[in-house]
């Protein structure tokens, strides 16, 4: 593994960044670069959160973190895009291929119902109003676009489509 990409720094999205070996948290992939939005790290580094101490700070301390802008290209296929609100520096990761595009949307949406009801923020959203506006934009931009959506907490990848004037999430075949 040569690159690890973090959409944001919540506990359920950083857990395997590190392993506990001999009482010390070390990078799970010692030669990988861990790409993290600098804005996200700047926010969380000041929070007293156990998952930052055991799963993110050791990556930074080991010199494996690459702190980028929220719209940086990671390589020729993957690009960060800023979609803030759920956390201050939350990003989605867009995959460009010859066959089309896919987006790893992190926690922009937790439940499929939020495609139809983007105004519903989860209680884990840092800034619910901003998360709501971001989610609306995301749903509108990707509706009927053919872009495969890979949302971390959805049961399956799929597409945002319009049916009877409503946005819906349709799992990929
Ligand atoms: Zn989250």
Tag the structure with descriptive keywords.
3-stranded parallel beta sheet; 11 strands; Metallo-beta-lactamase, Chain A; 4-stranded mixed beta sheet; 173 residues; binds zinc ion
Can you give a write-up of this model?
It is a single chain. This protein is of the alpha/beta class and 173 residues long. It folds into two domains: 1-68, no CATH class; 70-173, Ribonuclease Z/Hydroxyacylglutathione hydrolase-like (Metallo-beta-lactamase, Chain A). The chain has five helices and eleven strands; from the N terminus they run ββββαααββββααβββ. The chain has helices spanning 38-44, 50-55, 57-61, 113-116, 128-142, and strands at residues 3-5, 18-21, 24-27, 33-37, 65-68, 78-82, 91-97, 100-106, 148-151, 158-163, 166-171. The strands form four sheets. The protein has a four-stranded mixed β-sheet, with no helix packed on it. A three-stranded parallel β-sheet has the order 1-4-5. It is globular, with a radius of gyration of 16 Å. The chain binds zinc ion. Residues 8, 10, 13, 86, 107, 124 line the site of zinc ion.
Query: For the largest beta sheet, what order do the strands appear in spatially?
Result: 6-7-8-9
Ends distance: 29 Å
How many DSSP H or I helices? Answer: 5
For this structure, the CATH topology of the largest domain is Metallo-beta-lactamase, Chain A
Number of domains: 2
In percent, how much strand structure appears in the residues? 25-35%
């Amino acid at each position: 593994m040569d690159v690890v990409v973090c959409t944001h720094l919540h506990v359920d999205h950083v857990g395997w960044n590190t392993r506990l070996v001999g009482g010390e948290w070390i990078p799970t992939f010692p030669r990988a670069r861990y790409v993290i939005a600098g804005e996200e790290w700047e926010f969380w580094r000041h929070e007293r959160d156990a998952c930052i101490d055991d799963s993110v700070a050791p990556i930074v301390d080991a010199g494996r973190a690459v702190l980028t802008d929220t719209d940086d290209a990671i390589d020729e296929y993957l690009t960060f895009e800023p979609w803030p609100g759920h956390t201050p520096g939350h990003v989605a990761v867009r995959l460009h291929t010859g066959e089309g595009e896919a987006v790893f949307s992190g926690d922009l949406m937790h439940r499929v119902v939020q495609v139809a009801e983007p105004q519903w923020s989860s209680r884990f959203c840092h800034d619910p109003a901003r998360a709501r506006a971001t989610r609306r934009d995301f749903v509108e931009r990707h509706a009927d676009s053919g872009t495969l959506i890979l949302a971390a907490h959805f049961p399956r990848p799929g597409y945002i489509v319009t049916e009877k004037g409503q946005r819906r999430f349709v799992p990929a075949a």
